[in-house]
Amino acid sequence: MILIPAVDELCALTRPYQCDATSEQLFHNAMLEIVSFHVEHTPGYTQWLRHHCINPENLQLDSWGSLPPVFANYFKRNLLLSNTGQNALELTSSGTSGQKSRMRFDDRSLQAAQSMVDHVFHHYGWDTPDTPCNYLLLSYEPFETITLGTAYTDQFLCKYAPAKKVVYALRNTGKGHEFDPFGVIQVLQAFAQDDAPVRIFGYPAFMWFVLERMRDMNLPPLILPSGSLTFFGGGWKTHADKEIPKATLYARLGEQLGLSDERCRDGYGSVEHCVPYVECAHHHFHIPVYAKAWIRDTSTFEIKNYGERGFLQFVSPYITSSPAHSIVMSDLAILHHASECGCGVQTDWFELLGRASQHQARSCALAASELIQGN
Question: What CATH number labels 126-270+361-373?
Answer without folding.
Answer: 3.40.50
